[in-house]
């Protein structure tokens, strides 16, 4: 019985090893259904020696989308809680005139987290603006 089980397990193992690359190839082909399937015809070596390079449309598209994504992520200037005007603070999302007035009256701030500890903003409001504000410290007088 043990010998029969071992023989069956070994044959199943070998079957999995031989079938796995074929299944992987099918899954890869199924995943690429949206991309260009046709490959350009192979060029003769003398045609390719004229200094012309061939780059597939897929690689050009991926390069251009990568560059566009990086180009749109420019850092906006952050608003300083300790020196910004009331009008600058009201431009932040979720900050109205009354909240901006509270922020101005609660100055100076050591950290932007003090907006929560001093209960100037709710957690939801703070989550919206935390990446848009900073709390600069005044230079010490010498």
Textual characterization of the structure:
The chain is mainly alpha-helical and 142 residues long. Helix content is 53%, strand content 3%. It has seven helices and two strands, in the order αααβααααβ. The protein has a two-stranded parallel sheet with strand order 1-2. It is rod-shaped and about 85 Å long.
Key descriptive features of the protein:
about 55% helix, about 140 residues, single chain, two-stranded parallel sheet, 7 helices, mainly alpha
SSE blueprint:
Blueprint: H1 2-31, H2 45-48, H3 57-72, E1 79-80, H4 86-90, H5 97-105, H6 114-117, H7 123-129, E2 133-134
Parallel strand pairs: 1-2
| N-to-C CA distance | 90 Å
**Lateral arrangement of strands in the main beta sheet:** 1-2
Radius of gyration: 31 Å
Written as H for each helix and E for each strand, in order along the chain, the element string is HHHEHHHHE
Mass-distribution shape? rod-shaped
**What's the tally of helices?**
7
Largest sheet: 2 strands, parallel
**On the 0-100 scale, what is the average pLDDT?**
75
Structural class determined from secondary elements? mainly alpha
Low-confidence region ranges: none
Count the beta strands.
2
Which strand-content bin applies to the residues? under 5%
Binned, the helix content reads 40-55%
Quick overview:
The protein is mainly alpha-helical and 142 residues long. The protein has 7 helices and 2 strands; from the N terminus they run H-H-H-E-H-H-H-H-E.
């Amino acid at each position: 019985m043990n010998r029969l089980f071992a023989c069956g397990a070994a044959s199943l193992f070998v079957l999995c090893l031989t079938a796995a690359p074929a299944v992987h190839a099918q899954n890869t082909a199924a995943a690429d259904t949206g991309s260009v399937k046709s490959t350009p015809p192979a060029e003769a070596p003398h045609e390719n020696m004229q200094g012309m390079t061939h780059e597939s449309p897929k690689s050009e598209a991926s390069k251009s989308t990568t560059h566009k994504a990086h180009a749109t992520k420019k850092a906006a200037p952050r608003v300083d809680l300790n020196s910004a005007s009331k009008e600058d603070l009201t431009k932040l999302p979720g900050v109205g005139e009354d909240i901006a007035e509270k922020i101005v009256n609660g100055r100076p701030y050591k950290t932007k987290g003090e907006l929560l500890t001093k209960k100037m903003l709710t957690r939801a409001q703070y989550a919206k603006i935390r990446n848009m504000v900073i709390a600069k410290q005044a230079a010490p007088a010498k």
